[in-house]
Specification:
Length: 443
């Protein structure tokens, strides 16, 4: 227990001592004050530390954020059983041991039943406040933690994406300048033509570098210009074939993905007039494929690994669909997912998360309402009992609101923590899983 908690209980003991000594004691002497202080301290510390220990134990074993339903049920059970035992212990010490106003037989008879019941309700009020306070604090910490985590994830993903995109400019420029430098000596006219094509390509790079996705049509047009550039250098050593269906042109792919894959084809394979490198770009269902015949060249220096890994990482930040790589003795193929959604609607998770957030918000509101109602019950019912007993009437009418309100609270607790919408959701998920498994079995 924290030291602050003990100080609070000490001040509570002193406050209740002064209250009962000044307003409920006819004798105003030191002995009476010390007896009142002893009793107040005993009730405050036994009930306070007892309930505090239960609350801390449940916080460690069943945190609100991880097991809300289980924790709520255990809290209700522990509140009732724990306070029943603690109150009976304190009252026994008060009336039988300290003040000696009752025998053991009298204490466990109906004579003290109403007193014990009244004290249990007071203790329930204090304990319910502690558990509700713990729930609110845990909810606030969890909400703040989730907000911070989501911000860090968003910043990390954005930084990672920007880092991946920034790899493209120097990578493309370096390779293009290498090609241009070799052409200047071999064929100056081709070098001029290459420079013109390179300016068009680099303009596209600058236009698309800040976009997450581009249309397949734009990427194909860009790839054709880049293939012309490669054709300028390699002439008959490289052949290209574009076989992409027109209906796929409005889909989306990661920008510059074809250019990086075309570079990989040239870099990792040798190409000659007698053994030309055949590069085919085509659509296959909802994927855009680039395939080449395998003519592996010996690598003089280790590859930078920017090309394919860059594409895979950028796709992983945008969609759950994977980039597939196929390799055999005769060919190498890469399949890029073509996305039918626009860039700002690629990921449906935010929408699902928003719905889940609204549902969670509604549930938290219901739980808060339940605890507010429970606290009100623990305040008002003991007050009604006090008024009923102080008026001296033999008709114990306080039982009617106590039982009626208590039944309503019990049903509300069952609806929130046991048999409400959560049960329906669980049943719906169970039926959907069964249907999904049945469908998978028929495939």
């Amino acid at each position: 227990m924290k030291r602050k908690y003990g100080i609070i209980l000490l001040w509570t003991s002193l406050g209740t001592t002064l209250f009962f000594f000044l307003f409920f004691n006819d004798r105003k002497d030191l002995h009476t004050f010390m007896i009142t202080l002893l009793l107040s301290t005993m009730y405050s510390f036994v009930l306070g530390f007892g309930n505090g220990f239960i609350n801390e134990y449940l916080n460690k074993k069943f945190p609100w954020s991880e097991a809300t339903r289980t924790r709520a049920v255990l809290s209700i059970i522990s509140i009732v059983i724990g306070n029943f035992i603690l109150v009976y212990f304190c009252n026994f010490m008060n009336y039988v041991v300290i003040q000696k106003t009752a025998t053991i037989e009298d204490f466990f008879s109906s004579k003290y039943g109403l007193t014990n019941w009244f004290m249990i309700n007071i203790a329930l009020l204090i304990t319910t406040f502690l558990h509700a306070k713990g729930f609110m604090e845990e909810l606030r910490k969890t909400s703040k933690k989730e907000v911070v985590e989501q911000k860090l994830i968003a910043k990390s993903a954005n930084a990672q994406f920007e880092s991946l995109k920034n790899q493209l400019d120097p990578h493309f420029l370096f390779n293009s300048l290498n090609v241009l430098s070799s052409l200047i000596d071999e064929n100056p006219q081709q070098a001029q033509k290459f420079t013109a094509s390179m300016s068009k390509i680099y303009r596209y790079v600058l236009e698309q570098k800040d976009k997450e996705l581009v249309t397949v049509e734009d990427e194909i047009e860009f790839a054709k210009i880049y293939c012309d550039l490669l054709k300028t250098r390699f002439e008959d050593s490289v052949d290209f074939a574009f076989e992409v269906e027109k209906e796929n042109y409005r889909n989306y792919v990661v920008p510059l993905s074809l250019q990086l894959l075309l570079e990989n084809c040239i870099k990792h394979n040798f190409a000659t007039s007698s053994k030309p490198l055949m590069i085919r770009i085509f659509s296959d269902g909802d994927t855009l494929c680039i395939e080449n015949n395998l003519q592996v060249r010996e690598q003089i220096k280790e590859s930078s690994g920017i090309g394919l890994s860059n594409i895979v990482q950028r796709y992983s930040l945008l969609t759950k669909r994977n980039v597939f790589i196929e390799k055999s003795e005769n060919y190498f193929k890469v399949k890029l997912p073509m996305l039918s959604d626009k860039p700002n609607a690629i990921n449906k998770e935010p929408e699902d998360e928003y719905k889940a957030y609204k549902k969670a918000q509604k549930r938290v509101k219901e739980i808060k309402g339940f605890y507010s109602n429970l606290i009100s019950y623990c305040i008002i019912i003991p007050f009604l009992v006090f008024i009923n007993l102080m008026t001296g009437t033999r008709n114990h009418w306080f039982w009617y609101p106590a039982i009626g309100w208590g039944i309503a609270l019990a049903f509300r607790a069952l609806r929130i923590f046991g048999l409400g919408d959560s049960w329906q959701d669980k049943k719906i998920r169970e039926i959907m899983d069964q249907q999904k498994n049945r469908n998978n079995g028929n495939i």
